[in-house]
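Case 205 in the screening queue. Each case pairs one protein sequence with one candidate compound; here the compound is 2'-deoxycytidine-5'-monophosphate. For every case the pipeline is the same: read the inputs, emit a complex structure as tokens, and attach any notable structural observations.

Predict complex for case 205.
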Amino acid sequence: MIVAIDGPAGAGKSTVARALAQRLGFRYLDTGAMYRALAWLALRDGIDPVDAAALGALARANAVELGVGGTVTIAGHDVTAEIRTAQVDAVVSAVSAHPPVRAVMRDRQRELSLVVDCVMEGRDIGTVVAPQAELKVYLVADPEERVRRRLAERPTADAAALLARDASDAERMQPALDAVRLDTTGLGIDQVVERIELLARERAA
Ligand code: DC
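Case 205 output:
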């Protein structure tokens, strides 16, 4: 079974998807981490974030490993912590926009999603990566709340940059027609997770 969780940055996707996966006994797959790892490698190697061909080749040559414990590895480096920095935030949207990059990531994400029951988090899971997902959830929250959550998570985060990234991701971030839209503004994590867990158990039955 695949549960797809899509939505903008700060809507609560990661926290909710991780907790939900634990409750359901499913694997948690963070597709944003895969794009972040590639952005990290592009920065390290001095590859221009607008160079679609070079980034496509970089993605093809360097598989991103998502460890069961939440670790993220690329090109032999554990980048779990390093992908959550302002430097990576600043280029990841541009890096992820290129069709050759998305084609590589989409194929890997599909492969991963087909071998285990999973909660898969991203922007285009319900629409492109796994349109067959049994449950699709599109999480949203007011911009002020999204910024507040991101700052609570990472005090050095840049609020304007978060909203700019959303604007830049918007094209790839359309909710699937059959997604359940859930506004998490003012809701606690447990409430959101419980609602989705209920839906997942209904769908599984
Ligand atoms: O979820 P996140 O903020 O860690 O994602 C980082 C970036 O990766 C985000 O700006 C858009 C991109 N992304 C994407 O294009 N498609 C996905 N399925 C997941 C993330």
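Case 205 observations:
- Residues 99-115 form the longest helix (17 residues).
- The chain has two domains: 1-26+117-205, 30-116.
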